[in-house]
Structures are given as C-alpha cells and as structure tokens.
Amino acid sequence: MNHKKRNHLEFYKKCMYYWDRGHTNKTAIAEKAIDDLNYDLTIEQGRRSFSNYLSRRTIKEENPALVDEAEKVGINVGDVRQAWYKGKNWSIQFRPETEGVTFEQMLKDHIESVENHTFSYDIIRTEKTTGDSHLLVVDPADIHVGKLAKAMETGEEYNSEIAVQRVHDGVAGILQKAEGFNIEKILFVAGNDVLHIDTPDRKTRNGTPQDTDGMWYENFLKAKEMYITVIDRLLLKADVHFMFNPSNHDYTNGFFLADSITSWYRDCKNITFDVSISHRKYYMYHNNLIGTTHGDGAKAQDLPILMATEAKKEWADSIHRYIYTHHVHHKTAKDHPGVTIESLRSPSGADSWHHIKGHQHAVRAIEGFLHHKNHGQVARLTHIFY
C-alpha cells in the first residue's frame, strides 16, 4: 500500500475534528486520523503527537509568554513540564517526548531515508558539445537555510523556503548561461553557511543568537534534499566534484550534512568528494589550480602563500590560480602575485542585526565560473535575485 507523505498540520486538523465532536480517547482519535489520511505512522506515534499538540494549544492559550520564550530558546513547548518566571528570566523544566523532534528520531528518519534509497545510479554518459573543454564552478554561497528576515523591519523577506528556492533557481540560471560551452567537469562548492545555526538553541558555533525560521532538524533535512536535487541535476550535465568548506554559522552541522551527502551517493561513479574538516580545499583542473575557503579564518593576504605551501605540486604544475572565498556576502576581486582572490555574493537576505548595522543592499546572487582547460577563468556567470 502506498502511504501519503506526512503532514502534521493535516493530521492535527483531522484529530481535532474528532476531538471537537466529543471523542476523548486519544489513541482511538489518532488511529482514526491515521486511517483517514492513510499515513505511514504508528498509532502510538500519532497518540503522542496529538497529545503534545493539545498541550501546546492549552499552554498557548493560558500563557503565551511561555510559548514565546520556549520558541526563542528552541524548546518544544509541548515538552514543558513546569515553568517559573523570575522577574527577568524564565526557569523551564522540560522532558522531550514529542515524536519527530528528538535527535534520536531525526537520526532514525535520516537512516530510514538512506536505507529506502536504492542508490541505483547508473554511470551517466553525457553528450558533449563541440569546442574546448571547460570546468564549470557552481558555488551557492552563504545560503543560510533557516535565517529569518521580515520585510516590515529589513525591507525584504527571507526564510528557509525562499533560501532553498533561490538555490534551485540560481543553479538553473547558471546552467542556462553555460549553454554552448563544452562542460567537461563541474566543481560544486558546498558548505559556507549552508545552514544558519549550529545548536538546538538557535545559535552559531560561537554562541551568537540568531533569528530563525523553522526547527534545526527541519532545516537540516531541507538542506539535504536541496543538495540532492541540485546534484542530480548537475550530474546530467557532467561529472561532479563535491568540495565542502566548513564555516562559522554551521561548523558541526554543515560537516554532518556534507557527510550525509557522501553516503547518499556512495555507489554513484559520476561524483567524487572532498568533505574533510580542512578549512582550505584545492582542486586541479588541467593547468588551473582552484582553492576555496569560507573566509572567516586566514586573512586574504595570507591565502596565496598558504596555497603555495599546502598544494606545492599543484602550484608548480599550474599556470592559472584562483581562490574563491565567501562569508562577506558581497563581491570583491583582487589579483595577487600568482593568484586571483575573489569573494562571492550571497542569495540570502539581511536579518535584523545586519539591517541595524546597515550591512545590506549588496547584490543578491548565486555565482558560477567557467575555467578553460588552458586559458583559466574565461567567464563569470551570475544569477541575480531582485
């Protein structure tokens, strides 16, 4: 039997339909709702989920301030057992029991999705166009899936759905602009603050609080699905090398995400990976040496000598050298002796803090680059969001 994809809001509405008509047995209500909607959900999972929904609704009606505080610190309000307000701060006692929100459940869902995936990627033989071969660099930088910006304050809306859609639109735009070039290989640069936070309490690696849209585990799964969809599309064009850059907003979660992508494509012969935790990565394409790094670590003026030291053989064998950096969300490009350093634009909107500081209004874009096998970077490709 084929089951519908779960939609918790639809499930809660169906449960409330029976609850409002006098049914009080939560197990029976959950069973009816699961049968009505044909969900692949156990009755016990449904009962717990509905019970927590009722708890959240009751708490929201009786104490909306507690709901706001729980959401602010990343606690599911349905898990709250006791709470006290002590003048300036809340003291909240909670025990996670909600199906679908614990780390264990998220890990279980991830493992199930991998196990259910067939990994039957046959070797793809792409049709080549005439002319000299090129490397296409596709670099969706500083996506910040999970960032929240409201137009009322910042002048622009940004959330996880907009973030994911911009990546899909941007990659499609880059591929369209690259039509007519003979693409021999694609370098896909991943990481670079793909996720907005690194902890369940909505903070970055360094503990900086963030305005967020959605729960941390939801955004992790959205980013994973986004990467898979994009890579599947790129593989139809050429073989892909996936290169991951660790970053300051999602130092650990970004690494876990990159590692999960390697597992997804473990039997695909058309993709290779460099997903170590190293902050600087290098890739050789004919006589092009390309380095990537997030940009929050070593200073820009030190990157050329670091490249020459960390990639000695490739430096000696290359003629054209480039380092692509991220982090600053705006375009800079400068020639140094032997290497060009270029920072990339971001598709993400300005949140409250950046708006207050005036760090906004740079061009919103996803960028790509074409490297000729002999002549180096011959084109910049930009998909701009208005």
Care to give the gist of this entry?
With 386 residues, this protein is an alpha/beta fold. The protein has helices at 8-19, 26-37, 43-62, 64-73, 103-116, 151-154, 160-177, 216-235, 251-264, 303-310, 312-317, 352-357, and strands at residues 80-85, 90-94, 133-139, 182-191, 239-245, 271-274, 280-285, 288-293, 320-325, 332-336, 339-343, 364-372, 376-385.
How would you explain this protein's 3D organization?
The structure is a single chain. The protein has 386 residues and is α/β, with parallel strands linked by helices. The chain folds into 2 domains: 8-101, no CATH class; 133-385, 4-Layer Sandwich (Purple Acid Phosphatase, chain A, domain 2). The protein contains 12 helices and 13 strands. It has helices spanning 8-19, 26-37, 43-62, 64-73, 103-116, 151-154, 160-177, 216-235, 251-264, 303-310, 312-317, 352-357; strands at 80-85, 90-94, 133-139, 182-191, 239-245, 271-274, 280-285, 288-293, 320-325, 332-336, 339-343, 364-372, 376-385. The strands form 3 sheets. A 6-stranded mixed sheet has the order 6-5-4-3-12-13. The chain has a 5-stranded mixed sheet with strand order 7-8-9-11-10, with helices on one face. Helix 2 packs across helix 3, helix 7 packs parallel to helix 8 and helix 8 crosses helix 9 (251-264). The longest helix is centred in the first third of the chain and has 20 residues, at 43-62. It is globular, with a radius of gyration of 24 Å. The two termini are 45 Å apart. The relative contact order is 0.12. Mean pLDDT is 87; it is low at 97-101.
